[in-house]
Amino acid sequence: MNLNRTTWVAMILVGAALLSGCERPPIDTVQTGFRGTGMELVYNPRTLEKTESLHQAPAALDPADKSGPRARQVYQNVKVLGDLSVGEFTRVMVSMTQWIAPEQGCGYCHNLQNFADDSMYTKVVARRMTQMTQHLNASWKNHVADTGVTCYTCHRGQAVPNQVWFAPDDSKLAKGMLGQRNGQNEPAGSVGGSSLPKDPFTAYLQKDTPIRQISQTALPQGINSTGSSTQMTEATYGLMMHMSTGLGVNCAFCHNSRNFSDWKQSPPQRVTAYHGIRMVRELNNEFITPLTSTFPRNRLGPKGDVAKVNCATCHQGAYKPLYGEPMAKLYPELQGPAAKLVKTTLADRATK
Predict the structure, then answer these.
(1) Which residues of the chain have pLDDT under 70?
(2) Radius of gyration of the chain (CA)
(3) Contact between 108 and 101 (Cβ < 8 Å)
(4) What is the pLDDT of residue 349?
(5) Cα dist. 166→32, 58, 125 in Å?
(6) Which residues are bridge partners to 42 per DSSP?
(7) Is 339 left (phi over 0), alpha (psi -120 to 50) or beta?
(8) Does the domain made of 26-55+163-315 have the CATH classification 1.10.468.10?
(9) What Å distances lie between residue 211 and 203, 233, 262, CA to CA?
(10) Where are the alpha helices (DSSP H) in 141-297?
(11) pLDDT of the residue at 78
C-alpha cells in the first residue's frame, strides 16, 4: 500500500496526539505487596524533579529566649499567643510573615499605624488560622503524627494557599447538549482530569456523607443508606481521584488491590487517610466556614462561600507534606493547645 506524504504526516500527528496522554518511560515502580497482587506505587522521576523545590522547607529562625515578660504584658490585643515571651512571639510573627506574605510584609495583616487594630480582615483570619494550626497539631496526631504542620505547610510563601476549593457554580455545571450533566461528564482537575463528579468536596470534606462503593444489600436505597448506588460510587471515585492526585500516589498507596474494601488487608496509610478526611472536614466546618462573613466579596466563591481546604492544600502532590519535613517541632509555639469546639450541624451554621 502506497501512502503519500500528507497521509504519513497525518498518521504521525494522530499517533502523537494519542500518545500525548501517556507518560514516556522510564517510570519508577516500587513493589509494596506480594508479587501478583499489583501492589506497586508508580512514580514519574521527571515530575518529581520538577516539583522538588516546592517541597523544600525554609530554614527555621533561631530559637527565642523563653524568659522575660509575656507578649500580652507588652503588646495590646494579643488574644492567641499572649503566653509566649516577647522573643518567642516576635519569632513567630516574623516566621508567619515569611511563610504567608513575604512580599507584603507585616502590612498584609496589620494596620502599620496601630498594630493592635483589628480592622483588617486578614488579621482576624490569621488569628483564627493560628488557633486552627495549634488545634491540628494537638488533636490530630492520628493523621499528622509528630510531624505536625505550620502555616507554611499550606501557604508556601503565598497569601492564599495554592490548593483550595469553592462550591462550584451549579448554573454552569448543569446544562449541556445532553441536558443535566449531574455535575460530571466534563474533564475536571479536581478529580484528576477525569469526567467523574467534579465536586467531591462538599459531600465528603464539608458534609458527613457516607463514602460508599460496594453495596452490602441487594437493593440500595440511595445516598443516605448503608448501601451504595452508581451515583455514590462515582462520587467516591471522584474523591479517590482527588486524593491520588493531591498526594501524588496511586490507589495501592492506601488499598490492597486484591480487595480494595477490606480494611484488614489494607496498608496502614488507609487508616491515616481515614482520619485525614475527618480532620479536613472538621477544619472546614469549625474554623474556616465560620469566617465567611469576615472575608470581602472578592475573596468568596461563585456561591458566596469561603475558600476551603482539601487533601491537596497541605500535600500539594507529595505523599507527605514537604516530604515529611518536621517543621512543627521547630515551632513549639504552634503545638497547642487544642481549641474548644462547639459541635453544630450544617443547618445550625446556616442560621448563624
Answers:
(1) 1-5, 7-25, 171-180, 214-228, 338-352
(2) 24
(3) yes
(4) 42
(5) 36, 29, 17
(6) 29
(7) beta
(8) yes
(9) 9, 8, 14
(10) 141-144, 151-155, 170-174, 201, 230-247, 269-282
(11) 96
- This prediction has a pTM of 0.85
Q: How far is CA 327 from CA 142, 152, 221, in A?
A: 17, 9, 46
Quick check: helix, strand or coil at residue 308? Answer: strand
How far is it between the farthest Cα atoms of the chain? 90
Question: Crossing angle, helix 121-139 and helix 86-100, to 10 degrees?
Answer: 100
3-state secondary structure of 322: helix
Cell numbers linked to 325? 519535613
Dihedral sign computed on CA atoms, order 160, 165, 166, 170: positive
pLDDT, position 217: 65
Residue of 322, 334, 319 lying closest to 59 (CA atoms): 322
Q: For residue 235, what is its C-alpha cell?
A: 462520587
The DSSP line for 134-166 is: HHHHHH-HHHHTTT---HHHHHTT-SS-SS-B-
Burial classification of residue 24, based on how many CB atoms lie within 10 Å of its CB (0-12 exposed, 13-18 middle, 19 or more buried): exposed
What phi-psi label fits residue 179: left (phi over 0), alpha (psi between -120 and 50 degrees) or beta?
left
Contact 318, 154 (CB under 8 A): no
41: three-class secondary structure by DSSP = strand
Positive or negative, the Cα torsion across 310, 314, 317, 321?
negative
